[in-house]
Amino acid sequence: MKRNFTHIFHKLGIGMSFLCAVHCLATPFVLVLLPAIGEHYLSSKIENGLIIGSLLIAYFFIGRDYKMHFHKGPVVLLTVSTAFLLLNVFYHNHALSILGSVAMASAYLLNWRLHRKVCDNSVL
């Protein structure tokens, strides 16, 4: 009985590792195709809603954390991101969308690092 049970787990492990390999190979292609797919199937209202929602969340967290670390880097990056994303709303250019998204992600990353540094120092 134990032998059959272990065989099932071996087969399950082989199958899962195969699925993992397929997933890892397919993900870059899917990520590259998502903007093109979204352009044809998502309305501009949904895209604008996502942009506004992400900016509101970003301004909330980065503004809150600015009061802790007083570093202007994340605020400046978020302002640049807002400019790119607003231009994208009016001109519908993928480059503006990508630049705005990268600037926002950079603002989040810098803010997170500064937040961790302040939190780590306050614990000690």
Please characterize this protein's 3D structure.
The protein has 124 residues and is mainly alpha-helical. The protein is 93% helix and 0% strand. Helix 2 runs antiparallel to helix 3 (73-91) and helix 2 runs parallel beside helix 4 (94-123). The longest helix is centred in the first third of the chain and has 40 residues, at 2-41. The protein is flat and about 60 Å long. The mean pLDDT is 81.
Concise overview:
This protein is mostly helical. Helix content is 93%, strand content 0%.
Keyphrases for this structure?
124 residues; mainly alpha
Question: Topology, please?
Answer:
Blueprint: H1 2-41, H2 44-69, H3 73-91, H4 94-123
Helix pairs in contact: 2-3, 2-4, 3-4
